[in-house]
Amino acid sequence: MNGTTILGAVAATCTTVAFVPQIRKILKTGGQDLSYPMLALYLTGVSLWLGYGLALGAGAVSWANGASILLVGVCISLKWVKERAVTPGKSEPRKLRIAIDMDETIANSLKEHIARFNAAFGASLTADQLHGANIEDLAPVEQRAAVRELVNDASFFLNLEVIEGAQNVIRDLAREHDVYIVSAAMEVPNSFASKYAWLQKHFPFIPASHFVFCGDKTIVNADYLIDDQARHLRSFHGTGILFRAPHNWKETGCCRVESWEEIRKLLLEGHGTAKRDVSGKPELSAAPERA
Fold first, then answer.
1. pLDDT tens, 75-87?
2. Do the beta carbons of residue 254 and residue 248 sit within 8 Å?
3. Is the pLDDT reported for residue 279 higher than 70?
4. How many domains does the chain have?
5. Which of 114, 171, 245, 264 is the most exposed, having the fewest neighbouring CB atoms within 10 Å of its CB?
6. Which of 86, 108, 142 is the last residue before a domain boundary?
């Protein structure tokens, strides 16, 4: 072969093989940086070059552009497949990430706390007396530390009742969305093992990897947080839902729910005060001001 033929063969090889690294990149990143119009124009160009080579009987031009057509076709196909995998059809609603508190949201810790308080102090406290207050707020100042100690017993959390409707609604939520149980367990460090055992017993359909025991709930990254403590909702970056409890009776300025069936209507059925935004995520209105 003369020098001109060698030069042409090397040039054809380089322009053809140049698409091999691009194919590897598409396999890794999905090819979002590639333009369909550019690929289409390039495919048209090499197809015309193939016709030109065949008309002249130029073997090097023909095989090089034939190989280029094949590689560009692979690029277009891979890009289309990868984009379909990353961006599902618009008709498919995305899964929501829903974080759910434990105490007084799914576990009736208040009932146990009142029972222990009454037994320890010979009192006859009822939940109806706690409107807007915590148990320790009703105790004399000198007894408040002892009231807090009532929940530090590891056995406190083992036999709590499940709040009505929580299991059924959360099971249904978990079928459609990613559900996490998030507890500020660092407030009672002795509670870790008991809370874990309680959750496995009553919510076995939630994987243990979705149990989050923390101290500060600002670390939670979710679309919704269902909690009985308004302070956690104020620092939450998503949408907060306040689950009714005697101590939060006076709280305003956030979406309040009275039961798990109401949560079903808001998050699964889209009824009540919820409406859907363009992504399918319910927008919730705040609870009305309390007199």
1. 888 888 877 775 5
2. no
3. no
4. 2
5. 171
6. 86
